[in-house]
Known about the structure:
The structure holds 2 protein chains of 2 kinds.
Chain A: H1 11-14, H2 17-35, H3 53-92, H4 95-128, H5 131-161, H6 166-178, H7 181-192, H8 196-221, H9 224-232, H10 237-248, H11 250-270, H12 280-289, H13 293-319, H14 326-342, H15 357-373, H16 375-395, H17 397-400, H18 403-406, H19 412-431, H20 435-450, H21 457-489, H22 493-523, H23 525-540, H24 547-554, H25 558-582, H26 586-594, H27 599-633, H28 641-651, H29 654-685
Helix pairs in contact in A: 2-20, 2-21, 3-5, 3-29, 4-13, 4-14, 5-6, 5-8, 5-11, 6-8, 7-8, 7-28, 7-29, 8-11, 9-10, 11-13, 12-13, 13-15, 16-20, 19-20, 21-29, 22-23, 22-25, 22-27, 23-25, 24-25, 25-27, 26-27, 27-28, 27-29, 28-29
Chain B: E1 12-21, H1 25-36, H2 39-48, E2 52-62, E3 67-72, H3 78-85, E4 93-98, E5 101-102, H4 108-117, E6 119-122, H5 134-144, H6 149-162, H7 178-191, E7 196-200, H8 208-225, E8 228-233, H9 236-242, E9 245-250, E10 253-258, H10 260-265, H11 270-276, H12 281-284, E11 306-307, H13 312-318, E12 326-329, E13 335-339, H14 341-348
Parallel strand pairs in B: 3-8, 3-9, 6-7, 7-8, 11-12
Antiparallel strand pairs in B: 1-2, 1-4, 4-5, 9-10, 12-13
Amino acid sequence: MSDVSLPAPSVMDRLTPGTKAALLTLLVGALCLALESATEFLPVWPEAWTLPVTEWIGVSLEWLFDIIRPAMRLISAALEYPMVWVNWLLVNTPWPLIIGATVALGWYAGGLSLALMSGVGLGFVLASGYWVEGMNTLALVFVSVPLALTLGLLIGIWSNESARARPWIEATLDLMQTVPTFAYLTPLLLLFGFGPVVGLIASAIYAAPPMARNTLLGLQRVEAEVKEAGVMSGATRLQQLVQVEIPAAATQIMIGVNQALMAALSMVIIAAVIGGFDDIGWEVLLTMRQANFGQSLLAGLVIVVFAIIIDRISARMATSRERFDVRISWVILAVAIATSVLAWAALPAPGDMAVLAPTVEAVDGALTSFTRSAGATLDSIKNNAMFYGLLPLRIGLDGAVLPFTWGFSWTANMSYALFAVAGALGIAVAMTGRMAFGMCLPIIAIIVETGVSDLPWPFVLVGLGAVAWVAGGWKLTRLVVILMLLIAISGLWPRAMLSLYLCGAAVIACAVLGGLLGLLSAVSNPAWAVIRPVCDMLQTIPLFVFLIPVLMFFQIGEFSAFLAIIAYAIVPMIRYTRHGLVTTPPEMLESAVSSGATEWQIMREVRAPYAAPTILLGLNQTILYAFAMLVIAALIGTTGLGQSIYIALGAGDVGLGISAGAAMAILALIADRIVQGFAEERRRALGL
Amino acid sequence: MTASAPTGTPAIAVEGLWQVFGNDAKTRLKDAQGRTGSAPDAAEALRDDGLIPAVQDASFEVKEGELFVIMGLSGSGKSTMIRCISRLVEPTAGSVRIDGEDILSANAKRLIELRREKLGMVFQHFGLFPHMTVADNVAFPLKMLGKSKSERRARALEVIEMVGLTGREDAYPRELSGGQKQRVGIARSLAANPDIWFLDEPFSALDPLIRRQLQDEFLKIQSTLHKTIVFITHDISEALKLADRIAIMRDGKIVQIGTPAQIVLNPVDDYVREFSRDVAKGKHACLDSVIETSDELPEMPDDPKLRIDMTLDEALASCMSCYQHVPVWDREGKMVGFVHPSALAAALQVDPA
Lengths: 688, 353
């Protein structure tokens, strides 16, 4: 800028970026509303402007698939062998031996507590009668995980070695983790043919990124001087990697192994939707469809038990150096072998176990009677949430307010009154100096009146662009606008808005509820002692299992999906909020205390601002979790992109599957970048 | 001073060394040198371009068996300098010759050979391999050399004994104190018996007591091994205590090279003077810095038995009552020159700041 500029800063110069963005959004929103009836292309993206992108993708992929299919079928056939072998081995190994081996491993890694947990857990699986199905699932995991680990390790090393390839690899990993799980399945199904191998490959692909990421992270975190010491000792690059850097990064790499195991298990369960394999995920799905919830809960618990045992043992081996007396492990194993050999004939077949059958029936009965007696209450909870919360958010007050729900119908005058009140309030707030916040009030009024799914597209586009500009400048704005236009052109806009609405509603609920729970956990240790294991548990459970309890009480529908998303996505919000609030540096607290601040003042003035970047990262995780669950929730009735992906899977429509999956990934990516932008800005402001 | 005659090639010869960080540094350095002419101007031009000239036109030689200390504050480029000489970073321009061999043009294979056989390095934060025991850490360079397991173990124990860590050979680095860790670092750098020893601020991360103890032991080891050493530090008293010669660095440039006495007694500019201000000169400068020689001996009635390696403080204390020139003797009792007590006192004068 030259010195010919204005003598005094103009009004525009004095506005903060946030205020400018809000102002622009508000103007566009008002304009859209005013012209809504006059123009046709404003409210909905015109049909004529869309391109048959979905079909193009479908046709070109099918063409590509036709070429590579023979090779892929070969791989699939090759993978079939180890899978069948492992499966045969697991199913035919006497169950006392498997339990004994697991308990021995549990003892070695974590002592009595892990040994007991393994024993009781597997005992429960045996008693449930789902032993064979469980072993089928584990066989898939045990074949897919080594694949994923090898793949992940190689990718991690490659990106560490090649600075040029690194950004591309990282972008691909981002994509692999944001593309919804179901979206993987359709192309794989077409490529590899029907059968469990698809689940195996899908889970190997899904589990490789966390391994690759942790490998890269670990290698990068090896101290520079340790690497230099390797170089100065005259090690070749290969010797440096194998003898110095990889062993020095072992802890982080083991964390990658743990995450890959969990991801693989989760994906194997999800892949059960394809069917064709008698595994535990299929069992859950089947019993859920039959509304046989007692049984479904039992199968779900078997999955949870597997998840917890695998997670705790592998996590302990990754993070703790302590190992317990290996001789005791050998003794346990010897006893197991002896039992298997001596009692070979007398052992009951694991599949025939029905110890828990009466319990299941009792639970089923209790559930039925509970839902019958409390049905009215449950229904009213659901209906209230739908009529007064979710529905207005989706289709707007002008659509949701009807005589039979709210007792009156919405009129145009009411809209004007709403806008007038919001405008007046907004101006009042703006006068107190909080300009940006003041402008947001009328914007919120517009959203509530119109409903997310009916918002005029220019308003959404400009609004998202403006937020992106505040969070990350022009570069981010350009990215966001281009990506959103991509969705619009491919004709997926309405579905994307529906997904955005459900996700948005769930994220808001998570932010408020999770934020409060996080605050509570930060100030009260007893509360954290209760909340923490619940969080641990929720994070270990594969996505699929969340559907069972919500279905039991609220049947199929949007509200159940909403609850399932919240249950899964709330955990990071709680954790990060608490973590941010309790990790304030002690000297900051001491200087606040010595300035005479009360507990509450410290919380508001010191802890909260310091925690802001961390809490924003938690919100970011919550958003990504919500998108991931949204697709799974499509199984129990949501509209939007998740449903499209699910339909595509059923119909083998690879074009729709890929493009809907991409659209979902785009939404997640946009949310991720914007929130990261804000977090980065906060961190910089705090000098972190 | 040791009376070793100057043998032909120096152990390390650095000439016109530049390390510039930034994109396309090589061509832009050449360009800047072409445009400006002098090194400081070229550095200025590079800096204006957004590049970082961390080492600028450095030249010096290290003799065989010499303990050469490079001293400077943080950001002065001393760490980059040692990484250039050891080629842990690729210098932008200039030459580094070790025993006459240009190591900047050595290929990857030759470089590995050099590092295996000729070079050893100690790091500020130890750089120990966290997954190896003390013995395995120390034996690592030997493993790279392809030595057998028993040979490695035997040699490792030998070096571990030299640094006084016997009994700890099977401990892991995480179980050691800072001082012990650096003993391992030193042992590892000596395991393959290199000729050239690089030490990058080896004692800076240790607390003062341990630091002094390790400095003393380091001197003791050096007095038996006679390595050629490049030693980096930011601590002037450490530099003065250990060095045969010191190079002082500032903003990427070497501003002065000299013996401790020269640095203390004849600082080349205010920056160097500022360093030596707090240093008691009499403790660091020796008689050789003030000695006079002449074919014509002055009258010398007293002989307080001054020896050439006495510090100025010691010398002054022994000739408090002399008012005329006194003779100076070497260790063997041969007279090497003379000094006037007033010259001693004058040399001890603190410079006006």
